[in-house]
Amino acid sequence: MKNQGICVVTFPVGNSGATPLSNLADVLCNIYSNSYIISSKVFKEIYDNKKNGTNIITVDHRKSGNVIVRLINYCTTQINISWKLLKLSHNYDKCIFYLGGDGLIIPLLLCRLLNKRVFLCLGGSVSGVLKQNGDLLYPAYKITSYFCYALANKIILYSPRLINAWSLESYKSSTLIAHRHFLDFETFTVTTPFPDRPPPHRLHRPAERGEGRPALRRGPPCHPQRPPGPSRAHRRGRATEGLDRGLPAGRGAHRPR
User: Do 139 and 131 touch, CB atoms closer than 8 A?
Assistant: First the structure.
């Protein structure tokens, strides 16, 4: 089968998801002549300025605070994405489910029925976030994600440690590790040449007098003090007391003849 093109499917992203999605679109447009991205209007407004030939199809999604309405809107969004994929089915033979793709069970199932190769690229664990937030839709999303893992041809992770962290041991045979990352050298660039940089400070500079830790004050002695003994005059009085009685007063005392 001739390589026709590729399609990237995401849940409608906001401003935070537009940057990684645009980076992926820049890579794919240099590899495939026909590349399609199904995402939100926000991404289209940001990425349309590049004019690199990538076809962007927008899908709307309505937000709600009610659990039942959220579930209905979520299913409606998936049906709209599936309809877009069905109309473009003759223009691509591979489909990448990217941001939020592990919950798009209806579009992913449609791609498998259309005999398309499906790659599930996981950039994060949505079910883990829902569980941490105590979301009521967490059980349904977790079950849906496991169905998506089983239907995907390949699961793409950026680290092998995520296999155990996200409980993907059962799908280890179909897991690929994308350990290479792309850097934007317009953002990560040298702003100050090395000769113009100030000298680094010494990490282990000896502390001068009066600096560093405060001087330790001498506290009370650890051993218990002895009770005060008799004074010298009192001891002298006890020594002479034996002489008056004609008894030996102790060591050093004179004995009567």
Answer: no
Given CA atoms 124, 129, 131, 135 in this order, what sign does their dihedral have?
Answer: negative
Secondary structure letter of residue 195 according to DSSP: G
What single string gives the DSSP state of each residue in 161-207? THHHHTT-GGGGGGEEE-------TTTS--SS-GGGSPPPPPTTPPP
Q: In one letter, which amino acid is 61?
A: H
The predicted model gives 53-71 an average pLDDT of 89
Q: How far apart are CA 125 and CA 94, in angstroms?
A: 23
Which of 133, 123, 129 has its CA nearest to residue 19?
Answer: 123
Of residues 166, 44, 174, 60, the one with CA closest to residue 120: 174
Q: Taking phi first (over 0 means left), then psi (-120 to 50 degrees means alpha), and beta for anything else, what does residue 246 get?
A: left
Q: Write the DSSP string, 73-92.
A: HHHHHHHHHHHHHHHTTTS-
Cβ 90 vs Cβ 67: under 8 Å = no
- Note the pTM of the prediction, 2 decimals: 0.67
Could you tell me if 6 and 35 are in contact, meaning their C-beta atoms sit under 8 angstroms apart? yes
Under DSSP, is residue 178 helix (H, G, I), strand (E, B) or coil?
A: coil
Q: What's the pLDDT tens digit per position in 8-46? A: 999 998 888 888 898 888 888 888 888 999 999 989 888
| Helix (H) or strand (E) run with residue 155 in it | strand 154-157
Q: How far is CA 78 from the centre of its chain?
A: 28
Determine the 3-state secondary structure of 179 from DSSP.
coil
Q: Which residues pair with 35 in a beta bridge?
A: 6
Q: Which residues contact 181 (CB under 8 A, 6 or more apart)?
A: 158
